[in-house]
Automatic annotation (TrEMBL):
Span of domain HTH lysR-type: 6-63
UniProt superkingdom: Bacteria
Recorded family membership: Belongs to the LysR transcriptional regulatory family.
SUPFAM superfamilies: Periplasmic binding protein-like II, Winged helix' DNA-binding domain
Protein name in the entry: LysR family transcriptional regulator
Cellular component aspect of the GO annotation: protein-DNA complex
PROSITE patterns: HTH_LYSR
Single GO term (MF): DNA binding
Classification of source organism: Bacteria, Pseudomonadati, Pseudomonadota, Alphaproteobacteria, Rhodospirillales
Keyword Nucleotide-binding among record annotations: no
Organism: Azospirillum lipoferum
Keywords, alphabetical: Activator, DNA-binding, Transcription, Transcription regulation
InterPro entries documented for this protein: LysR_HTH_N, LysR_subst-bd, WH-like_DNA-bd_sf, WH_DNA-bd_sf
Length: 319
């Protein structure tokens, strides 16, 4: 096979099918008919002399050799995007499309705060938003499937740059009328570990809550799949939980009390800690991204657009 038989468009088709595991949805993403997409992938497979996918009536799976081909296809497509960025003379500015993702416990609550500023700052930028878990988002960022991610720091930074944005405190969410309501101040030592409700394994907020409370990975007996379920478990009287500030308030700034069944209490700073329990939210991007200047501008804008109740965290590098 020579290079003339290989097109970037075909590689886009292959990567889309690999990510969506569905030919129809991949065709929709690529704005092409499914028969055309399938025919081009078949043609590419014949040219390569191998099968990229296992096709059944119910699912599409990558073959072992297909996994390697798709990984390299992502590299080729990312380098092609770099070429376009360098060629358009934008000097690293944000143009075209930006694939921005956030962890599940942050995205739904942060995006409403930052979207107006993003739309005003880059009106011609096409934003593609998504959510996921930290490990998955970092993998997609390194593979070039995402351009930047918003998550809790620190993270494994090999090949990545993390821009700290702000500190978000945790509040204690407890049933209305709980014994802790009568306490004049609140510290982590006041919590009963047996009452602590957590997210299921795989959520970084679970690990942060356990660490803040000084508990092992087995701490907390009841788990939830997401923050909204966790909030409703508190409303049902099942226990208490640490709730990120942004998740405790709606777009109007009011606390989400589930009909008055949930109360929130802030934690007091202790003598050995400058801040109450919480997390540092940051923007993470690839070192190799040619839009470095634009992504640094994005981080600077996000620092200026602090959600109410959060605290600025200055980056270690100059703006």
């Amino acid at each position: 096979m020579n290079l003339s038989a290989l097109s970037l468009r075909d590689l886009e088709y292959v990567v889309a099918v690999a990510e969506l595991r569905h030919f129809g949805r991949a065709a929709e993403r690529c704005a092409v008919s499914q028969p055309s997409l399938s025919a081009q992938i078949r043609k590419l497979e014949e040219a390569l002399g191998l099968s990229l996918f296992e096709r059944t009536s119910r699912k599409v799976l990558l073959t072992p050799r297909g996994e390697a081909i798709v990984a390299q296809a992502r590299v080729v497509l990312e380098e092609a995007r770099r070429l376009l960025v360098l060629a358009d003379g934008s000097d690293g500015a944000l143009t075209g499309r930006l694939r921005l993702a956030a962890i599940h416990t942050l995205g739904p609550y942060l995006f409403p705060h930052i979207l107006p500023a993003l739309r005003n700052g880059w009106p011609d930028l096409t934003l593609i938003l998504s959510e996921g878990r930290t490990e998955t988002l970092l993998e997609e960022l390194r593979d070039g499937r995402l351009d930047a991610v918003l998550l809790a720091l620190p993270v494994e930074s090999d090949g990545l740059v993390a821009e700290p944005l702000f500190f978000e405190p945790f509040l204690l969410a407890h049933p209305a009328g709980h014994r802790l309501c009568a306490m004049p101040t609140l510290s982590l030592n006041d919590l009963d570990p047996a009452e602590l409700l957590l997210l299921e394994e795989g959520h970084c907020l679970r690990d942060q809550a356990l660490a803040a409370c000084g508990l092992s990975a087995r701490g907390g007996g009841v788990h939830a799949t997401g923050l909204e379920t966790l909030r409703h478990m508190v409303a049902a009287g099942a226990g208490c939980t640490l709730m990120p500030l942004l998740a405790a308030t709606g777009e109007d700034g009011r606390l989400a009390t589930v009909g008055g069944l949930v109360d929130y209490r802030p934690f007091d700073s202790t003598s050995d800690a400058s801040r109450p329990p919480g997390r540092i939210v940051g923007l993470v991007r690839r070192v190799s991204d040619p839009r470095d200047r634009g992504l640094r501008d994005l981080a600077a804008l996000l620092r200026r657009t602090l959600p109410p109740g959060t605290e600025s965290v200055l980056a270690q590098r100059d703006e």
